[in-house]
Amino acid sequence: MKINCIAVDDEPLALNIIKEYSGKIPFLNLVKTFDNALDVIDFLKTSQVELMFLDIQMEELTGIQLLKVLTNSPKVILTTAYDSFAIKSYELDVTDYLLKPFSFERFTKAVNKAYDQIMLEKGYGQAQMGIRNDVGKNEEDYFFVKTEFRLQKVNFSDILYIEGQGDYQAILTKKGKIMTLQNFAKLMASLPSNTFIRVHKSYIVSVSQIEKIERNRIRIGDKLIPISETYKDNFFKVLEKRGLI
After folding, report:
1. What percent of the chain stands above pLDDT 90?
2. What is the pLDDT at residue 22?
3. What CA–CA distances, in Å, run from 129 to 48, 49, 142?
């Protein structure tokens, strides 16, 4: 499934690079480019756009100012030559942050993350997202999660499960609990899909931490986690595909 995207940058060379890279990604449809942020506001009111590549430093209206005035922004990947904006990008809840000049591999990693988030929000499960090009897929064994006023490094191997608690998600690890406002779609996009599975609207589990499964419930330590009908078939298919059952 293709997603519509736009690129906003006042540097022609930067736009050309995004055009070139986007043309190599099967699921990206670059519908338009802009050399200023003001024109984007009206365009987004009448056009279906799911992803925006956005430069930060531009005349008249910066990328950050644009995000603040948009009422219904698409997913955003910020592009800039200044790494000082990294923390600001997390405050704005953007999908990723590309530091110029960025490689095709790094570009692909960012768009894979955006694609996962968009597909999950549309209701597509992990098994239905196989048309994606996985070049540049995250190979680290950790990620950073936004909690309070800091970015916390979390090792994948330390995570037991993730539980939705109202507006927050609780990441239960071997070292304790981490609370974050990052939504399930964003968390799933950051986690390796061969290790973490969503089993309920309120739970993501680490397969390696499961102690037993009985009567549609998973035991991890002292916690019993329900497997809902919505996610049951996919959960057992993943276990079977991995040769675990």
Report:
1. 44
2. 93
3. 21, 19, 22
